[in-house]
Amino acid sequence: MKLYTQLSKVPFLNKSYAYKFLFIAFLGIHIPLIAIIFFLVFYERSISPQNIFYFTLIITLVATAITLFILKKLIKPVEMASKALDLYKNKRLLPVLPTDFDDEAGLLMANIVSSIKNSENLLKQKQDLVYLLSHDLRNFAATPASLAQVILDENPVDAIKKSAELILLSTSRQTEFIESIINLMQEEEKILSQHLRVKSISFTDIIAAVNQDLGQKLQSKNLQLIVATDLKEAHLKITQEMLTQVVINLIDNAIKFSHPGKEICITIQKTHAHIEIEVKDSGIGFDNGERNELFQKFTKMRRVGTQNESTIGIGLYLCNQIIKKSDGTIKAESRGENKGATFSVRLKIYRRSNS
After folding, report:
1. Which strand (E) or helix (H) includes residue 227?
2. For 161, which DSSP code?
3. pLDDT level of residue 225 (50, 70, 90 thresholds)
4. CB neighbours of residue 177 within 10 Å
5. pLDDT (average), residues 303-321
6. pLDDT tier at 44 (50, 70, 90 boundaries)?
7. Alpha-carbon torsion 231, 234, 236, 238, what sign?
8. CB–CB of 238/200 below 8 Å?
9. For position 353, what pLDDT does the model report?
10. Mind listing the pLDDT tens digit for each residue in 242-289?
11. Are 182 and 129 within 8 A, CB to CB?
12. C-alpha angle with apex 167: 160 to 181, nearest 5 degrees?
C-alpha cells in the first residue's frame, strides 16, 4: 500500500487508479529507452552492433521486471478488497480497509466497508426482530389460546364451545406460523455466519440421524426408506450438521407428500469429482415448469401433505441456501402431478480436510 499511497499524493494521479497504472507503465517503457540513448551518446569508445544489442536486451528485461514488480505492488488495494470480502463471506470478519482515497480502488474499498457495515446493521435489526417474535408475539398468540382453553374446560353450551374451538384452532395456526418465521430467521443467520471449510463428512452418521429424527414419521405413515450407498465418507466444503439438515429436510418433504405404504429412496454416490445425493419418492409430484419456485422463500407452491400435514414453505428454501453457500447445486424434477419427485444435491469432492 506504500506505493499506492505515495502515488495518491501526486495531484494528477490521485483521482484515477488507471492513471497510476499508465504512469508506471509509461516510466517502464521510456526509462530503458532513455538509458539506451544516453549510452549511445555519452559512451566514448566505439560500440559494436552486438554490444548495442546485448545492452538493449538487458536494460529492457531489467526495466520490464522492475515495472511488473511495481505494478504488482500497485494492485495491492484490489487484493486487499478481495481478501476482505472473502474473510467476511467465510469467517464473518469485518474488513479493516482505508477509506480516504479518491480513485476507483479507494472508492471500491470505501464501498465495501460501507456495504458490510450496512449489512451488519440490517442483520442486527433482524436479530432484534427475532427477539421480539420469540418473546412478545408468542405471548400475544398464547393468551387467547389459554382463554379459549379455560372456556372449554368450563363445559360451555355448544355455541360458545364451537367459538372457543375456532379461537383455539386459529391461535394454534398463528403460533405455528410465528414459530416458522422465527426458525427461518435463526436458520438464515446460522447459514450466513457459518465459516465453511473442507471437512470429512460421514454419510453413515447422516443416515443414522435421518433414522433417529424421521423414523417415527416413516413408521406412522407406513413408508419404507431405502438407502443405496457404499460410501462411508468424503471431504466436502460443508459441515456435518448442515448436510444432515439438508438430507433430513429433503426426506421429511418426501414423507409429507408420499402416500402411505410407498417407498422413499435415498442414493449417495460418487460421480467423477462430485458427490451426488438423490432423494426420490412416488408421491404427489409437481409441474416441472414450476420447479424453481419450490426453492423460493414461502413458495406459492406449498401444499398440505397427503395426510393434511401443514407446510409453511421454508424447508426447501433453507436447503437451497445451504447448498449454494457450499458452492453446490440442488435441483428438483418430476414427471408431473401424482408421478413422484426427485431432489438431487451435487457437491464437489476435495482431496482432504483443511481444518
Report:
1. strand 224-228
2. H
3. very high
4. 14
5. 80
6. low
7. positive
8. no
9. 53
10. 999 999 999 999 999 999 999 999 999 998 899 999 999 998 888 877
11. no
12. 175
In the block, cell 566514448 appears at 44
> Hey, what's the cell of 297?
422463500
**What amino acid occupies position 44?**
E
Give the sign of the dihedral formed by CA 294, CA 298, CA 303, CA 308.
positive
CB 82 within 8 A of CB 112: no
Residues 6+ apart with CB under 8 A from 243: 201, 206, 236, 322, 326, 347
**What CA–CA distance (Å, rounded) separates 339 from 208?**
28
Provide the residue type at 334 as one letter: S
pLDDT reported for residue 277: 95
Query: Regarding beta strands 329-333 and 341-350, do their DSSP bridges make them parallel or antiparallel, or are they unpaired?
Result: antiparallel
For cell 408475539, the residue is 137
**Distance in angstroms (rounded) separating the CA atoms of residues 211 and 215:** 5
**Average pLDDT over every residue of 147-160:** 82
Distance, in Å, from the CA atom of 219 to the CA atom of 326, rounded to the nearest integer, reads 32
pTM: 0.61
- Distance, in Å, from the CA atom of 345 to the CA atom of 78, rounded to the nearest integer, reads 34
